[in-house]
Please model this.
Amino acid sequence: MKRAIITGITGQDGSYLADLLLAKGYKVYGMVRRSSTENFERIEHLRGKISIVQADLLDQLSIIELMEEVEPHEVYNLAAQSFVPTSWTQPTLTGEFTGLGVTKMLEAIKLVNRKIKFYQASSSEMFGKVRETPQNELTPFYPRSPYGVAKVYGHFITVNYRESYDMFAVSGILFNHESPRRGLEFVTRKITDGVARIALGVAKDIRLGNLHAKRDWGFAGDYVEAMWMMLQHKPAEDFVIATGESHTVKEFARLAFEHVGLNWRKYVKVDEKLYRPAEVTQLRGNPAKARRILRWRPRVDLAGLVRMMVEADIVRIQEQLSKR
Ligand code: NAP
Ligand code: G4F
Model:
């Protein structure tokens, strides 16, 4: 039976990847950092099916010991400080988790067993102030936030360990992917949660920042499949994962409000405090390489994603209200 370690198991992608690997017959080890309260909401349904193991991206020895104990075939490094605005208020912490944390994972593999396959969760934020559209594996990076800068480091250290030590280490350059398990502070989930509350009469409006920003949004369930495919494909190489379509925040909000029969203009308020010091105004990926080599393609389109997220938030908030 194949063994996999997932860092960031309590996050959106970690929970979907665990679902996928369990379905494929893996033994899954989810790495969590020590916390005074459990934060297992997204993996509640996996209790008893996966093993939870403690280690921290900031603690080299804890990661080495984890590799020695589990002897994994595959490691998926999804843990990071992943919220872009926080990277301006906590830039050094973001650098340590999101950047140097990757080196700690790679060093542990180098020391324990170089045959372990490694996936690094890289990001379209690395393209930042984009140099061409759409962006592909060869597009130069121009990050626009401490988060983006840290991800560029994580990407190149992965490439460097592959080239220096002949390790199977790949970087997946994933564009934005969303789901009902997305953190509430990210724009899509903030919108669908707000729409559900407004439709159920418990909120009056949603305050958003830049409505003109464009993103290439896909469904997280489709994207974790691409992560797995990258580790099955030889030789180890990097891939862009995206839908190839780009939409504005305003369009996302319009679709979400339309789903409950409301006009977004009446409920969305622009709050300039939510503007970023430096914005990534547009992102659109070119997934041609992944389509051609991995045979990967997304199954959920934007309309399907919006529907799935709004409906899940309505059900969740109705349940909360019925318990009051
Ligand atoms: P997420 O929901 O924010 O989850 C982040 C995870 O990292 C959480 O499980 C968190 O644990 C863990 N973590 C943070 N610091 C840690 C530390 N010091 N030690 C151990 N664990 C730590 O993120 P996501 O959306 O699932 O994204 C997964 C990865 O893909 C991230 O690296 C993100 O930057 C990258 N990415 C995401 C997207 C996207 O659109 N979702 C696109 C491109 C790349 P706690 O629960 O303890 O906080
Ligand atoms: O949903 P967002 O916060 O995602 P962002 O910054 O694109 O980052 C996400 O995707 C990256 C992949 O490209 C990941 F690497 C990263 O970890 C994360 O998952 O913001 C999307 C856009 C931005 O342009 C932002 O300015 O939405 C705009 N926006 C407008 N109003 C808002 C808001 N973003 C947030 N979070 N909240 C708002 O009220």
